[in-house]
Structure formats: C-alpha cells, structure tokens
Amino acid sequence: NDRIALENVTLQSGSSDISGKLTLKGLRRAITTGRGVYDLDAKITSEHIDVNEILRAVAYMKTYDGDSSDEALNETASDEQFQASIDAAELPDSTGSTLIVLPANVNAKVSLEAGSIKYDSLHITWAASDIAMKQRCLQITNTVAESNMGDIYFEGFYSSKTKDDLKAGFDLNMVDITAEKVITLMPKVDTILPMLKSFSGMLDCELAATTRLDGNMNLILPSIDGVMKIYGSDLTLENSQEFAKIAKYLLFRNRKKAVIDRMSVEGIIRENVLEVFPFVLEVDRYTLAASGVQNFNDKFRYHISVINSPLLVKFGINVHGNDFDHIKFGLGRALYRNTKVPVFTQELNSMQVNLVSSIHNIFDLGVDKAIAENRAINAVEEKKTAEGYS
Predict the structure, then answer these.
(1) Model pTM greater than 0.90?
(2) What distance lies between CA 269 and its chain's CA centroid?
(3) What are the residues whose beta carbons fall under 8 Å from the beta carbon of 319, sequence distance 6 or more?
(4) Residue 256 has pLDDT above 80, yes or no
(5) Nearest 5 degrees, angle CA 274-CA 197-CA 172?
(6) SS3 of residue 369 by DSSP
(7) 3-state SS of 165-193?
(8) pLDDT one-digit tens code per residue, 129-143
(9) Of the candidates 243, 178, 244, 173, which has an alpha carbon nearest to the alpha carbon of residue 209?
(10) Which of 106, 121, 146, 231 is 20 to 30 A removed from 320 (C-alpha atoms)?
(11) HEC profile for 200-256?
C-alpha cells in the first residue's frame, strides 16, 4: 500500500504518443498524513510528439465554455464526433507562456527518449534527456537533439520556490545552425546581438547563463549573467545597414556583402550589457580587429582597428549610437596594432565549466550557490588588469 509500479503504460493523443515504465513510492505517508513526499522513477519513450498540436488543443479547450450549438460537442456525442469537431475547429495560433510552479512534494527521476518532436518550426528527429526534480527545482542534463536546425546540446535547471522567485540556469550549445534559426529558437538573442540577423552561413553558438524569470516565463534581461560564444566559417554578411556604411568608409570592392572565412566571437553578459572581447576578421582586402559593448536597451559602442589594408596605414573606426537605425562613425587611432589581441577564452571556458558543474550538482549546492558561482568573474577582471585592457 506504499508503491505503484506500472510495467508499461501507453498514451496516444492526436498524433502524439508516449510509452513508459514507472514506479511511484511514498503513497502511505502522503495519503495518511498529507506531508509525505512522492518518489517517481520513470523511463519514457515516444515515437512522435507534436507540441504545437497539444498546446493549440489545450488553448482551444480553455476557451470552450460548454455552451456550444455544435451537436458534436454535447454530452451525448461520441469520441469520434468530438474529435472530428475539434479537428475542424479554428484553433488559436499562439498560447503564450504561462507560469510553471513545480510541486514541493514530488521527487522525480525521468529518462526521456523521443524519435520525433515538433515544436513551432523546430523539427527534432531524435532526442534524449535525463530529468530530475526535487525541492521545487527541475534539473535537465545530458540532453542531445538532432533537428532541422542543427544539433542541440543542453544542460539546465529551473527553480520555482515561489511564483515571485523564479530562477534558471542553462548551458546551450547549437552546432551547424544558421543565424536565422538561432533567432527563431531564442528570440531574445536578437536583442543581445542585433547584427546576428545579417549573417548567412553555418554557425556554432554557445550560451551559458543564469537568469531570473518573470511570471510569464520570460527572461529578465538585467538579471542575465553568462558567457556567449559564436563561431563560424564561410560566412556572408549582407543586407546590413551597419555593414554598408563600414564598407563605404573602407572602400570595399563589394559593398553589398562581405565573405568571412572564419569568425570567433566571445563575450560576457552581465548588468544588462554584452561585452564583446577583441576578435580578428579577414574581410575583403582587410584584416580587422574589433571589440565593444552592446546594451540591451540598444545603446552600443564598438571599435574596429584596421590592421592590414590597401591603404598601408593603421587606423580605427569608432561606431556608436542609441540604436542600429541611427549609427554614428568616427575615425581615430587603432587600438589594436596586430592580430595578437587580448584573448579571454580560458577564463570564459572556466566560467562555463563551473556553471555546468553547478547544474549537475544543483540539489547539493542549492540554486543560490549555483548562481553565485556563475557570477564569480574575478578571473576575467584579473586578466583585464594584467593585459591593461579597458
């Protein structure tokens, strides 16, 4: 009378299905005293999950008030009639994000494997993940997904102590993905790095951060602390107002687009600002080094040093403004004289490793300790001092 074990349970709803083997323990104390904790252990598999269909159906049923003139929706309708009516109905296009508060009396360990998942324009052809829940904190580890938007690797946690105290941390790695699809998956990244939408080609993107969430599960931008990395090769920069103006200043041969053989951009996010550390680009007939800061309120300030060019002189271009529709340029001295620019890769890697370790040990460390460790950026500041970097 303390345990339920299901050797096999299968559920099919619409075009989605899940099958699982699960054990639920702790029933006796939970039922008799109301203060017990349920322990759930489950292994779940699925051939296909259509998240779009599920969310739209849930949204439709939320709007259904039970008073319908459709005979197929009355109490005497068969399942087939009801399903046919729902299929023919005009379902809402969007459900919006709703607050998720995790139960305090459930500890869970779940392994998940799915052959196909459809969510928005993301089509996953295979995915696997380990999920654990304890103390109103959800831990997601060892997540791997193959999709139409590239390969995705994910580790993360979500904590909901109260509805006003929502926190999350994650390490997201997307391999061989276009800039357009990065923005589709993570709409907020367009705010963090506006020029990303002007790149064509395949990118590897990494974002590791902790953040607070609002009641609609949106990231609270000023609370984000983390590391951003973008790598790419054989890229094209085009359809960009910013590029067009720089190309005009530098007399590029092709002022409509630029081909970039290799790009490696790294930065740190904190206090509502993305700081992009120095990186080197070879564009057209030029070798450039650039760095800068991007505020999340669209205010920005970047510097581009022209290291090698047909002009045979080194000079700098300072780019700044309050938004990317009103860009101001100024010429000055080159802050970087060669391609040996200050590099913070080791320090950023250390921060990323610390965060991933905190995610894997979230139940032992606690959420606050994990977030505090992620904010330990002393190594970056020490490197700046040693390099004389400002």
Answers:
(1) no
(2) 14
(3) 242, 246, 292, 300, 301, 302, 303, 304, 327, 328, 329
(4) no
(5) 55
(6) helix
(7) EEEEEEEEEEEEEEHHHHHHHCCCHHHHC
(8) 999 999 899 999 999
(9) 173
(10) 231
(11) ECEEEEEEEEEEEECCCCCECHHHCEEEEEEEEEEEEEECCHHHHHHHHHHCCCCCC
